[in-house]
Amino acid sequence: MFSELLKNVVNHHARNLPFVVYRKPKEQIVRAILQEDSEVHYVKDFTETGFVFAPFDSQEPAVLISSDSICSENYVQQSKTTARAQGSVHIDTSQKEFHINLVKKGIAQIRQDEFKKVVLSRKVKTDCKTTPVDLFLKLLDTYGNAFCYLWYHPKVGTWLGATPEILLKIENQQFTTMSLAGTQKYVENEVPQWGNKELDEQQLVTDYISNALRDSVSDLNIGERESIRAGDLWHLRTKLTGRIEKGSLTKVIQSLHPTPAVCGMPMDATKKFILAKENYNREFYTGFLGELNFKSEKDRSSNSRNQENRAYRSIKNTTTLFVNLRCMQLKKTIAHIYVGGGVTQDSEAEKEWEETVAKSKTMLRAFTTD
Question: What pLDDT is recorded for position 60?
Fold first, then answer.
């Protein structure tokens, strides 16, 4: 039962032991991975098995929660909460002037040909008296199309999120990644209309990812651009698929992270600008997280009564990584919520501020009452 899974998570948290509990987009199954010691384990070469949590700065190590114990249960929505049926959300405007000036600096650098696009973010603080588990349940009830998670390590911190973006999904040697950029508010019964700024921004990301992967993968296929909804927002998305060679996972991840959707392009110049000008440490925001090298049996025969069925079983190796967007970090009674947006030569500083406000509501709604 789901209550038993939740009880295991709460007990693990009370013992100050690392865990992650999560649900993939459009699924009902909630999984919990419980580590039985309090050590901080790091990823060395992405051949490890467990749940990886990687920071924005790829020079910093990725943390691995060991899969000492794994449990899963179906979760049925406990309330009628939706992304739109929420109480009012208070917006703190104290950072408005700083963020608008930061965006203007980014636009100026773009017009001086220092880079083509940069993703600029900020951190919002709000009081939090809700338990991490209750916040996680609220995310489950509100964001069925997102990867919802609660991650805890006593020596690292507590993070929650509801992210719509896959960094990389691999089943055996077949991979899927995506280019996600462009944002506008969801309006009921209206089809999103995209301007040149959003279309160009998303195309920049698609082109960058496809070029970065060409030397690391084979059979690369670029799908059609589409509009997808994530809560109260629309985004533009393009899926890219192909095949990776054995032993090349590290190279592929290094090619993808950080993507132009969370950093900019070219990466080195924009990353340097972000670290120097944003005036705070992103930590795990715009990093990535997910299942690393999970193995499961896959039946090749549909006849379950076949006595020789075991001869038709194969081991399926999967890795499913998500970009850590729409997330928060809990520090005692304060929640730190992270939001950002892509800046191009066509950006307007005031609208970029408004975009971060819209994105902040994804997490802020977890603190409202119905």
Answer: 95
Per-residue confidence (pLDDT) for residue 27, from 0 to 100: 94
Segment holding 141, helix H or strand E: helix 132-142
How many whole angstroms separate alpha carbon 275 and alpha carbon 289? 21
| 3-state secondary structure at position 305 | coil
* Dist. CA 53–CA 287, nearest whole Å: 8
Alpha carbon distance 103, 114 (integer Å): 14
Name residues whose C-beta falls within 8 Å of residue 282's C-beta, 6 or more positions apart in sequence. Answer: 55, 56, 57, 121, 274, 338
And the tokens for 233?
């927002």
- Which tokens sit at 259? 């993507």
| Predicted pLDDT at 149 | 98
Q: Per-residue DSSP letters for 147-184?
A: EEEEEEETTTEEEEEEE--EEEEEETTEEEEEEEEEEE
Positions in the chain short of pLDDT 50: 82-87
Cβ-based neighbours of 219, under 8 Å, separated by 6 or more: 241, 242, 243
**What SS3 state is found at 311?**
helix
Give the closest residue to 159 by CA, choosing from 283, 38, 28, 309. Answer: 283
